[in-house]
Structures are given as C-alpha cells and as structure tokens.
Amino acid sequence: FQPPDGADPGEVTGRLRDEPGALYAVHGKVNAEGGRVQINANLQNLRTSEVIWSDAYTVPLAPAPLTALR
C-alpha cells in the first residue's frame, strides 16, 4: 500500500488497520540535505499502535554508502 502524497499518517494507519491480514506497518522519512541523507524508520503494530522498532541512519549522499544500508 502506497499512500498518496500529503496523506495524513494517522489516517493511513487507520485504513491499514482495517485491511485483512495487516498486522504491522513501516513508517519513515527520507531527507537529503547538504550532501547527506537521513533515513528515519519505525515498525508499528497496527492492533496496539505500539512502535516495535525504530532507527535512524545518516549517511553521505553517494551510491556506495546507500546500498550498504541494505
């Protein structure tokens, strides 16, 4: 499921909660500025709204470091 640009994250989570079999959602942001990329991501339980995992990465904006995040 890919939400439309500008969609409210709370509304999107609510819609996903109603999808059959949907238990978790990954939310995140990617920002590129000043030659660096910051990636913030979290995994949320759709039934309890609990964030199970969260992390942030900041790397130089270059192909090699970005592919190393996999």
Structural notes for this entry:
This protein has 70 residues and is an alpha+beta fold. Helices cover 21% and strands 43% of the residues. The chain is built from 2 helices and 3 strands; from the N terminus they run H-E-E-E-H. It has helices at residues 9-17, 63-68; strands at residues 24-33, 36-45, 51-60. Strands 1-2-3 form a 3-stranded antiparallel beta sheet, covered by helices on one side. Strand 1 (24-33) and strand 2 (36-45) form a beta hairpin. The longest helix is centred in the N-terminal third of the chain and has 9 residues, at 9-17. The two termini are 21 Å apart. The model has no long low-confidence stretch (mean pLDDT 81).
